[in-house]
Amino acid sequence: MVYMAGSGRYIGTINGIMLCVDGNDKGSPQGRLYHAFNRKGIPFCGYEQVIRTAEELFNALGFPHRDTSVRDIHGRTYDVKKKEGMTRVMEDEELLEKHGDMGTFVIRVSHRQHSSWQGRVTYLDEDKTVYFRSVLELIKIIDGTLDEAGRMNGADEPSRRLDG
Fold it and tell me: Other CB atoms closer than 10 Å to residue 107's CB: what's the count?
């Protein structure tokens, strides 16, 4: 993994997300998610809610454009329409003031290809930025960062083990 130092103290994209992790229950992070189009923090419990909330934002913005159709469980496809009239209510500076008790991450998704995300994530507490090629890789990066931060802060047990 390649870390880039000093590169994360900005959002820099309209679809940037602030992930503020406040706790971890049996490997399921909990906290608040912020983006520029909603002043209130959106509570989440687990990565599924983070992914769903982010996908709703991306679809509403029409960015990043997805390269595959949305399908339901029965195999039917349908188009997702961009929402008109979305208004930005927070600037980058205000978003960057949000922080989680366990960790704060800026997620910048630049592409949605192969039914996944590609982009970069910055751990603001240490100003480290890492590129990811899929949602699974993003989850592993965040989990690893939270585990490492927990060990450095004296936590006895890591938040989640990916190796069994």
Answer: 24
pTM of the shown model: 0.82
Spatial CB neighbours of 102, under 8 Å, sequence gap ≥ 6: 21, 22, 23, 24, 29, 31, 146, 149, 150
Amino acid (1-letter code) at residue 37: F
Contact 111, 127 (CB under 8 A): no
- Tokens, residue 99: 């922080």
Burial status of residue 1 (CB atoms within 10 A of its CB: 0-12, 13-18, 19 or more): exposed
- On the 0-12 / 13-18 / 19+ scale of CB atoms within 10 A, 66 is middle
**Residues β-bridged to residue 108:** 120
> Could you read off the pLDDT of 107-156 as tens digits, one per residue?
999 999 988 999 999 999 999 999 999 999 999 999 999 988 878 877 55
